[in-house]
Design goal:
single chain, about 200 residues, alpha/beta, 6-stranded parallel beta sheet, 11 helices, 6 strands
């Protein structure tokens, strides 16, 4: 698949070129009419690109068998949900690191969807609508500190955020997280969050 890049911001295009030119054959699209004619490609579009009616425009790109990665300067969960509903394959930050944009492109190339990790965390918080009573029974075998850590994990907080909130070291947080996972018989955050879905 070809990789087409489209943005009204020349700085973003230069950034993407620097990150991607060693790995991919890049095609730069300067106008919307040309973009509408792209077929069977991965298209990375900056949200600052003036595309008019987004839903109609993205539908046309999807109809042309393209896989789309939308990048925004300030990504947020609601935009991610809206874009995925319109058929995009990926959603990230316009200035994300090389490892993230390459990961996104490779995931999309292999038929998977890709979402910026920070937005994934927000999404887990959003879908985790568990009642407090359910927490009590699920967390009954945990120590008081493990219960606090588990509750924060359930609410989508990252280890560093838990460290800051509970005023304990990152290694202590990691130890509590490991204990929580062991006691609840889960391997990672995805399995942990599935306990509450």
């Amino acid at each position: 698949m070809k990789l087409a890049l489209c943005s009204n911001d020349i700085n973003i295009l230069h950034r993407w070129e620097g990150q991607l030119s060693s790995y991919y054959d890049l095609e730069f699209i300067n106008d919307i009419q040309s973009l509408e004619n792209v077929k069977e490609s991965i298209i990375v579009i900056s949200s600052c690109t003036n595309i008019g009616n987004k839903s109609l425009f993205l539908a046309k790109l999807v109809e042309n068998k393209n896989k789309i990665l939308i990048c925004e300067r300030t990504p947020n969960l609601n935009s991610a949900k809206n874009y995925f509903a319109l058929g995009v394959y990926g959603y990230g930050n316009s200035v994300m690191s090389s490892s993230y944009i390459i990961s996104a492109i490779e995931s999309i190339k292999n038929g998977f969807v890709w979402l910026l990790p920070q937005i994934t965390t927000e999404l887990l918080k959003d879908v985790s609508n568990v009642k407090e009573n359910d927490d009590i029974s699920t967390f009954e075998n945990l120590t008081p500190t493990e219960k606090r850590v588990a509750t924060l994990l359930k609410d989508g907080f990252r280890n560093q955020e838990i460290c800051d909130m509970l005023e304990i070291s990152i290694n202590t947080v990691k130890k509590h997280v490991k204990n929580v996972y062991d006691k609840l018989n889960v391997k990672d955050r995805i399995e942990f969050s599935n306990l509450f879905s």
